[in-house]
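Request:
You are asked to prepare a plain-text protein record giving the amino acid sequence and the backbone structure tokens, at your earliest convenience.
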Amino acid sequence: MEKMIEYILRFGNLNKQQIDFIESKATVFELRKDEYFSEAGKVPKYAGFILEGVFRFCYYNNKGTEITHFFIDENNFVNDYQKFNDRAIASEYVQAVTDAKLLVFSRKDWEDIANTIVDWDKIETKILNKCLTEAIERRSPLISEDATTRYLSFIKKFPALVNRIPLSYIASYLGITQQSLSRIRKNIR
């Protein structure tokens, strides 16, 4: 809980009662590797704060190919916020890449926080803006770069994730085949 509260406090001030209230609404939730936190075709049920683990956002293109478009790891909120907030059907999957532990909030609990804590909407907006900015930064790079450059950029940008994510997901994120990624990795060693 401490990490989540530290994270929230970067975006606004809360008193002890407000912090206790938020903590009372959070539930510890564990997912095994490959389980979904949110699924395409369903309305997202939870907002989560990642305590341990890595998640990926992915979808299937019109050819049925799975596309990973970004990863998110510890000490970040994870959910499809707009779909969660609007009670709309998600168009992508949020999947645990590793075993994961989160603090989760149901929609009702999230609304209770919003309705109880003065200026929560301002804190929430700042958190959302940070999440959106990070999502853009973590999105798959443009295909205009060659595959080796994309992989080297990935290693530089996300050194903590390289050894935690299966190569197939990294290849999907980079827009290349797993065989191409293996060749690239072999050539840069």
Summary: The longest helix spans residues 120-138. The beta strands are 27-31, 36-38, 46-52, 55-60, 66-72, 77-78, 93-96, 100-106.
